[in-house]
Amino acid sequence: MWIKTIGQNIYEIIPATICQYTGLKDSSGNKIWENDILMRNQDPNDLYKIVFGEFDVINTDNLKVVTKVIGWHCRVLKTDGSNECIPFCLPIPLSKRFIKRAILEVVGNTINRSNSEK
């Protein structure tokens, strides 16, 4: 349940169901929201969850943490196993450049697992 009625015209909003707009759009022009699932290059085995928070920036040559950053990023969703391998499983900053290069498209979200109009 996303909203619980407490009284007449008074609602309690469940914080876990609120998603923020990232300020970015996918390759098809759809807004990208927190907790959205994005598919890369039309590959259903290459999925990301959009998250806001702290994440490690990792040097892929030696796999050492370079720094920590707070912001929008993509976390890999485990699918067929190939995306669980380093460096494919590392968090990736969400940016216009990455969206365009990876041809990212919103295919649903982790709250209701289906694509909804936003």
Automatic annotation (TrEMBL):
Transmembrane segments: none
Pfam family, one: YopX
The organism's place on the tree of life at top rank: Bacteria
Domain YopX protein residues, every copy: 11-78
Gene3D superfamilies, sorted: YopX-like domains (2.30.30.290)
Name of the protein in question: YopX protein domain-containing protein
Source organism of this protein record: Anaerobutyricum hallii
